[in-house]
Amino acid sequence: MTSELVGRAVLGWRVAELVESWPETASARALVLEVPDWPGHRAGQHVDLRLTGPDGYTTERSYSLASPAARSPGGWRLQLVVQRVRDGEVSPYLTDVFAAGNLIEVRGPIGGWFVWSPREGGGATVLLVAGGSGIVPLMSMIRERRFRRDRTPFRLVYSLRTQADELFADELNRPGIGDGGVETFVLRTREDSPRSGRPAGRISAADLAAWGWPADFAPRCFVCGPTGFVEEVARLLLSLGHSPDDIKTERFGPSGP
Q: What domain range includes position 16?
C-alpha cells in the first residue's frame, strides 16, 4: 500500500466491532476495534466514531489512534483510548456500556500532517511532548518505531496530573520500551515525580531543556494535549530556539493536566 493512499483521509463510514477492551485508568478505557476493510493509516492519525440511537439520532466524536501503522494477523485492529467526560454524551457509553461484540461506525483515517514514519526525517531526533490523554497519538508513533525496528532517537516528555492518570503505564515503564532509543520522562502537575526527582508543577522551559533535545539538534517536535497546554509548550520550545518549522501540534478540548 502506498504512503500516498495511507496519508489521505478515507472518509467513508465503515462498520467496526469491539473485540477487546480494558481500563487504562479509573476514567479511561482502551478499545480495540476490528475493521476488516480498513485502508491503513499512519502513526498520529485519528478517526471519527458515530453512534446512532434507536430513534435515528446520530452523534460523532474524534479519537486518536494508538495503533502502529501495521496490519494485524487476520485483519486491521485499531486501538483507541476513551477518557470519560463528566456529563458527556458519548464517552460514558464507550467507557461503561460498549461491550465486546457491539458494532460502531468508524470513519478515517483522518489527518496527514501530525504524523510520523521512519521514512521521514532522515534519522533526525524526535521529541514527543504529551499533556494528559495527548499521549495517545504519540504512543502510536512510539509503537510504529518499535514495530519497524527503527533506530531514530526518541524522547518523550509526558505531563499529567497524578500517577493514577498515567495512560500506557505498564508499557512506558517497561525496560527497553524502544530498544534503548525511547527515553521517557514523566512530569506530574499535582504530585511529585519520584523517578525524575521533580516537584509537582506545570511543564516549564527548564523541563524541556533538561528532558528534551537541544534546539541545535533540530529535533522534529510533536506536541499533543489540551489547547492551553499545547500553546504553552509550543511557546516554550520557540523560546529555547526550536524552529517553528520543526514543531507540529495537535490539540483537543478544555480538560487536561
A: 3-110
